[in-house]
Specification:
Elements (H helix, E strand, L loop, with lengths): L1 E2 L22 E2 L6 E4 L3 E4 L11 E4 L5 E9 L6 E5 L20 E8 L3 E20 L6 E10 L11 E3 L5 E8 L7 E5 H14 L3 E4 L4 E3 L2 H7 L7 E3 L15 H5 L6 E5 L2 E2 L6 H5 L7 E8 L2 E8 L1 E4 L3
Antiparallel strand pairs: 1-2, 3-4, 4-7, 5-6, 6-7, 8-9, 8-11, 9-10, 10-13, 11-12, 12-13, 14-21, 15-16, 16-17, 17-18, 17-19, 19-20
């Protein structure tokens, strides 16, 4: 990850102490990734390449360096796809994350601490379908990561974007997060999410995702008491006090379906909405253009609306 010299005077260390390239650019961060196509397609985490003003350089295991383009960032998952101009590259085979079983061996590969390239650590799959809130950049922004693989293989800072591999040598996940202050707890994005992104990119030139167009909070027992609501599960449509914004975005799929502020979405496509099964989780299994039922609670009465899933284009 490179940035033009002189634009980061606010960093806590002087520029002359930061690593420079021969061209005079400053390295301000790094991460891992892996080649999935011999033509130069690379998978990594979205948070590794979140800076849209930066230039990205890929260094291979053979120490060859290539400028990289960010082709797409998944709007729902911590996945990004990069491209380098090279050919006949060794590519890592993709496994099937739906076939993962608890207790199976997993290997985490990456550039540990941003310095130790091709570091491999071993462990097991210790959990499935986990969800966490993870910090995604230095400014403290966070993102809810869903459906994660939990592993006790060591995932260190700098490993983000590297592959989680099974004993057949197939990538079953993308290393994404580690719990600081805890030992042997790391998380990876299931590779089938990235496989879908690759297919979308190759077919449509972008990553397509359904988009409802609402602002909401997921309810629990405490929020039920706070807002004095009749239910403790669901998505409470609310602007959350954001000035100048509405709870339902005009002309969105939700607006056309008739969803209003203070509605509670109880089910989407016959799936109950809970803290562990949010709207985004359900939307990932909905086909664009599909008409799906939305069960809501409005003024104490349940009713079902019909909503047509519309595209949310990935920001690339």
């Amino acid at each position: 990850l490179m940035a033009p010299q002189g634009e980061h005077a606010g960093l806590p260390v002087p520029e002359e102490e930061l690593p420079h390239t021969p061209g005079g650019k400053i390295r301000i961060g790094g991460g891992s990734g892996f080649i999935v196509d011999a033509s130069g397609l690379i998978l990594t985490n979205k948070h590794v390449v979140h800076d849209r003003e930066a230039e990205y350089i890929v260094t291979t295991a053979a120490e060859d360096m290539y400028p990289a383009r960010v082709l797409a960032r998944d709007p729902l998952n911590d996945v990004a796809i990069l491209k380098i101009e090279a050919g006949d590259l060794p590519a890592l085979a993709l496994g099937n994350s739906d076939a993962i079983r608890l207790g199976q061996t997993a290997l985490a590969v990456g550039t540990a601490l941003g310095e130790f390239q091709n570091t491999v650590s071993s462990g097991i799959v210790s959990g499935l379908s986990r969800f966490i809130n993870a910090m995604t950049d230095a400014e403290g922004h966070s993102e809810r990561l869903r459906g994660l693989i939990q592993t006790d293989a060591a995932i260190n800072p700098g490993n983000s974007g590297g592959p989680l591999v099974n004993l057949a040598g197939e990538a079953i996940g993308i290393n994404a997060a580690v719990v600081f202050g805890a030992q042997n707890i790391g998380f990876a994005i299931p590779i089938n999410k990235a496989r879908r992104d690759l297919s979308e990119l190759k077919t449509y030139g972008r990553i397509r995702r359904p988009f409802l167009g609402i602002r909401y909070i997921l309810l629990n027992h405490l929020l039920q008491k706070r807002f004095r609501l009749p239910v403790e599960q669901g998505a409470f449509v609310l602007r959350e006090g954001v000035p100048g914004r509405t709870a339902v975005i005009p002309n969105s799929a939700a607006h056309r379906a008739g969803i209003r502020e203070t509605d509670i979405i109880l089910e989407l496509n016959h799936t109950p909405i809970t803290e562990k099964m949010g709207i985004e989780d359900v939307l990932e299994k909905v086909t664009l253009g599909e008409e799906v039922p939305v069960k809501i609670l409005r003024n104490g009465q349940e009713q079902t609306l019909m909503l047509v899933a519309e595209e949310r284009t990935a920001v690339s």
